[in-house]
What does this fold into?
Amino acid sequence: MRSIAYVGPGIVVLAAAATALLVSPLAVRRASDAQADADIRQARLVLGTDAAPRVVPVAGAAPRTADDDAVALASTDSVLAAINNANRAIARLVEPSVVHVSTQARVDRRNFSAPYASSGSGWIWDEEGHIVTNAHVVDGASRVQVQFHDGELRDAEIVGLDLRSDIAVIKVSAGGMHPALRGDSRGIEQGDLVYAFGSPFDFRFSMSSGIVSGLGRTAGLADLDYENFIQTDAAINPGNSGGPLTDIRGRVIGMNTAIATGRGNGAGQGQFAGIGLAIPMAMIESFVTQIIDGGEVRKGFLGVQVMALDRARALIESGRVDYPAALVEDFKGEGAVVANVTVGSPAEEAGFRAGDVIVAIDGQRVPNDRTVPAMVSSRRPGEQVEFEVWRASADGGARERVVVTLGELDPGARIAPQLRMALERSGFAELATATDARAKRLGVPFRRGVIVESIAGDAEMAEAVPPGSTITAVFDQSIGSIDELYTRAARVMGRVGPMRRIEVPMTVTRPDGRVLQIAVPVP
It folds into this structure.
């Protein structure tokens, strides 16, 4: 019995220690969340943000004294002190919504394969754990991990990405989320103060400030089809990619994406040179919502090809086109010249003509020809969009209002028409982005990729690739949508050259789970 008397207290101690190990991290996490909520509440008071804070009262938390920062800001006679307090409030408001994103992948070259790691930034979209970042931050990653402002690490999965706009959504387990406040990039102007957050050169959870240097910028990035950047002089460096750009209320109005390097390649991921570029929130809002809802982005289609004003005027003066001469003599300002109009397109139905100048889209000015595809594609199919168009007339020209109901952009026809025709010749009659609904309709398990909805019965591949099969990779690169299929294939085919025949390798998972490799010949 004596031995039992000695063992009993030991068991109690061990049980208490085990309980402490399990409960303490949770208590620390809850206290950390409560402190972050208190900081956010105080910051909103200082900045005058309208959105109501989410307050989770937790015993043991030590929030700042109520309204301390607001009182300090209101009572100070020093403008610099007021600015300092506002900057601190922005940091406290935004930082809990910023994350550091780490990825692991493999680089495969001829006779060589090795793992590599990279990192970037992101920001919390909602309470469910969705996080927004750049596509180039997570593209090709076999593992994605997210670090929160308090040091906590969570594994993440890729929900979807749009390669041509460089926008991606990843997801972590829900709980303890502090979603970013979202603003409207359409209301910003040149000269507005902005703040950039992220992990430049792995200096995690950094903040820099500057102004909006310009709007509607393009940088000629090789892998992006849609460029309509906000330009800022806030310090942005490698590692800032995917981080939020906020306004003076701490609301996200853009996402840091690229920098001008001054090295002759337009923009990229070099060192800071005073010119940072961010994707505007107007585009992010549309694309992210679609990725979360259905795993793919459906883009608006107008049906015009546009060119720069200078080029159009040079062609008119050389006599190579019959656009109105008034475009040279009478039009003053900036915009994009309609080079031609696609037959049967929404633009033709709305009355667009070659030689028209698109001046504004839904009230936003059009500074150059490259911003038109970006602004149109950020709208969804079926949306009504108002265009301000300058049109030549007998007495010189005038501005007109044209309302268009957008169609849907066909990624195959736009990006890789040769591959699209080759797939049709091989019997792939209907392809679509794989979704739960489409998989259920065909009675097959959902797999991320492109689902084969129908295939020609007499096609050579009909037996090997039955309906319900999913194309999960092209050129050994995983895909999650029909847009990705054509984009990844087009990038590789572009490096091969247009005059060579090529076989496009694809990884296909059949409905029964068997994985096979096929090759589609493209002339």
